[in-house]
Amino acid sequence: MKVQENKQTIERSRVVGLKDICVAEVTTNDATTYAADTPTRLAKAITATIKETFEVEYLYSDDEVEDTTETFVKAEIELEVNRLTPGDYALLFDSLYKSGYLVKSESDRAKEVALGFRAKQNNGKYEFVWYYCGKAEHPEESYETIKDKKTAQTQKITFTFYARKKEDTVEGKAKRFYALKVDESQLLEEHANAKKTIAEWFGAVQEYKADVAA
């Protein structure tokens, strides 16, 4: 018996790469407007691990589950990168970086940022990703003396993302977005807006734009 494939799936190609990690400071995040600065490269990518958390409540009646309600809580993204520069700390945590000095103070706070990247697939196409609103945790730093063989250090940094405050209406339903993804392998000829969006992916934090039928 032939198993039916998902009709919205064109090709399944494994992810084989990760690159172009960028952040953009969120300038407005309220009930009516979401806006962010022009994206800036953060560091060279090594790995990214994403864990999205939802709360599920089970509603019971007549000794059985009648229904469930599901609520998005957060998305945690752990990045391993080659190295965070002083400029990266200033971008993420509002630390003072001036005249060659990185000055950390007790009043430094994580900025609200958007995070984007792209992941290469085995067919040469990419999956493009933006998470809209989140903050970074202050990362650990490690140093090691040179031994018989040098050990190259990397850094890990964790972000926590949440839904933005602005409510968008899509097909009559109110939604508060927290992420946007485009899988280049799944685009059809009529997906003109998505194709245009990936061409401009790192020029700005991208928005969902529905295609209008001819």
Overview of the structural elements:
A hairpin with a 2-residue loop joins β4 and β5. The protein has one domain. The mean pLDDT is 94. The protein is built from 2 helices and 13 strands. The chain is globular. The strands form 3 sheets. Strands 1, 2, 3, 4, 5, 8, 9, 10 and 13 form a 9-stranded antiparallel beta sheet that branches. It has a two-stranded antiparallel ribbon with strand order 6-7. It has 214 residues and is mainly beta. Helices cover 7% and strands 44% of the residues.
Keywords, separated by commas or semicolons:
nine-stranded antiparallel beta sheet, 2 helices, globular
Our measurement of the CA-to-CA distance between the termini, rounded to an integer number of angstroms, reads: 38 Å
Question: Helix tally?
Answer: 2
Backbone CA Rg = 21 Å
Class by SSE composition: mainly beta
What average pLDDT do the residues reach? Answer: 94
General form: globular
Strand content: 35-45%
For the biggest sheet, the summary is: 9 strands, antiparallel
- Total strand segments: 13
**SSE run:** EEEEEHEEEEEEEEH
Q: Catalogue the unreliable spans.
A: none
Domain module tally: 1
Instruction: Report the helical percentage.
Output: under 10%
Protein name: Major tail protein
InterPro entries: Maj_tail_phi13
Secondary-structure topology with pairs:
Blueprint: E1 19-29, E2 34-36, E3 40-41, E4 45-61, E5 64-81, H1 86-93, E6 96-98, E7 101-103, E8 113-120, E9 126-136, E10 155-162, E11 168-170, E12 173-175, E13 179-183, H2 192-199
Antiparallel strand pairs: 1-2, 1-3, 1-8, 4-5, 5-10, 6-7, 8-9, 9-10, 9-13, 11-12
